[in-house]
Amino acid sequence: MFLTFYVHPVSTFGAVLDMVTDRISTACLLVILSQVYRPSFVFLSLLALDIGSHWFQMYSTFLVGKSNHKDVKDSTSWLFRLYYGNRMFMGYCCVACELLYIILFLLAKESEKMTDVLMDAAKQSIIYSALLAFLLFGWATKQLVNVIQMKTAADLCVLYDLNKKHNK
Amino acid sequence: MTSKSRPSTISVYLYIPNIIGYIRVLLNCYAFAICFTNKELFSVLYFISFVCDALDGWFARKFNQVSTFGAVLDMVTDRISTACLLVILSQVYRLSFVFLSLLALDIASHWLQMYSTFLVGKSNHKDVKDSTSWLFKLYYGNRMFMGYCCVACEVLYITLFLLAKDSEKMMDVLLGTAKQSIVYSALLAVLLFGWATKQLVNVIQMKTAADLCVLYDINKKHNA
Fold first, then answer.
1. For chain A, is the Cβ count within 10 Å smaller at the N or the C terminus?
2. Which chain A residues touch B213 with a CB distance below 8 Å?
3. CA distance A95 to A87
4. 3-class SS at B168?
5. Is there a contact between B9 and A158 if contact means CB atoms under 8 Å apart?
6. Do the Cβ atoms of B149 and B201 come closer than 8 Å?
């Protein structure tokens, strides 16, 4: 996954394989998190958002013919421009997300409540608090972008149909 | 550019089949929120959502409200509800890797299929006519058979969920049920056959789609 930021896949199959592997590995990570923490509904929702936003985005990208969903240039949302315009920031958000999930998994003991685990870790030292805040911010930004992405992509699907009808 | 005004996007979002789609999403959200506290209600709600899935396509054609957004919403809701069902199955049965694998296969096969369909410009992945595989021709050529396999898959998962008690082994649960009567055995066999066919088709679909991606690149180079 990290290579995708620096190495452009030279085959279509490679690009798809990359995307599919990302989706599946994130999904499996969320699944095992839903097993070690109650309430699992949180992780089911994150899984739904990940699949839904990426699926809509891929579909709408094909409809409008952009080569890559990371090349969005025309969105008016400042968050969009920040996220997609700046590869470092995007990389930070993606990495923070995966790291947060891994850390949550490592910290878990027997079906604890997630908020307790996070609070305990934060209380141990100011460094842990800062680190957690850093990860949570990146994670939250990524999820917010997922939601906006899904809405934008849905609009593109609708506009595609409207334009098709209009041009008949 | 003509100055004829276009209807706003909200008109498509309010299409009847799309509203049914939103109801499906809400039903699924509520169902999965209560799935461990009320298994029976969960199963009923999931089943209703499954029926809505069949209905919204029919409504779309009947009211001439077919939309790309609706088709994508449908596909995404299907993928997510199947994924969540497999997730909760992985929680009640130890052997989670089985369900994680099924989840991976479902996501990968549908994703690759959609991608390759766009590359070669077929309108619908269910319209494959040129595959030489007899199983492919049987599955996609016969809507009843395809419907049976899809329904069998979902019913098997729901049944497994309803039958589960405290982290049992799945094999014990299945064998225990089958032994109870010949009718249960026959029913389970029917479900398992449909499920197995669907998974096999997923695997073949994934390979075919991957080949199409590779051929797309080769053709592009060849024509460059």
1. C
2. 11-13, 16
3. 12
4. strand
5. yes
6. yes
- In whole angstroms, give the CA distance from residue A49 to residue B84: 12
Contact A48 B84 (CB under 8 A): yes
Mutate to test the interface with A, among B115, B116, B208 (most CBs of A within 10 A): B115
For residue B188, give both structure tokens: 């389970």
Nearest to B69 among A16, A20, A158 (CB): A158
Which chain B residues are within 8 Å of A24, Cβ to Cβ? 103-104, 107-108
Query: Could you tell me the residue ranges of all domains in chain A?
Result: 2-166
Substitution target from A10, A13, A56 for chain B, most B beta carbons within 10 A: A13
Residue with tokens 């923490």: A37
Structure-block tokens of residue A124: 């141990």
What is Dmax (Cα atoms) for chain B? 71
For residue A110, report the phi and psi dihedrals to the nearest 5 degrees.
20, 80
Asked if B113 reaches chain A (Cβ–Cβ under 8 Å), the answer is no
What type of residue is A42? V
How many whole angstroms separate alpha carbon B146 and alpha carbon B194?
Answer: 9
Residue B21 near residue B53 (C-beta atoms within 8 A) = no
SS3 of A80-149: HHHHHHCHHHHHHHHHHHHHHHHHHHHHCCCCECHHHHHHHHHHHCHHHHHHHHHHHHHHHHHHHHHHHH
Task: Tell me the pLDDT of chain A (168 aa) as tens digits.
Answer: 455 555 555 788 888 898 899 999 999 999 989 888 877 889 999 999 999 999 998 888 888 774 444 544 455 567 777 777 788 888 899 999 999 999 999 888 765 677 777 787 778 888 888 999 999 999 999 999 999 989 989 988 888 888 877 776
- pTM of the prediction? 0.85
Q: Which of A31, A162, A163 sits opposite B87 (nearest CB)?
A: A31
For A16-75, the three-class secondary structure string (H helix, E strand, C coil) is HHHHHHHHHHHHHHHHHHHHHECCHHHHHHHHHHHHHHHHHHHHHHHHHCCCCHHHCCCC
> CB atoms < 10 A from the CB of A168, how many?
5
Which positions of B are annotated as active-site residues?
78
Joined together, the tokens standing for residue B29 give 């959200």
Q: How many Cα atoms are found within 13 Å in the side-chain-facing hemisphere of A28?
A: 18
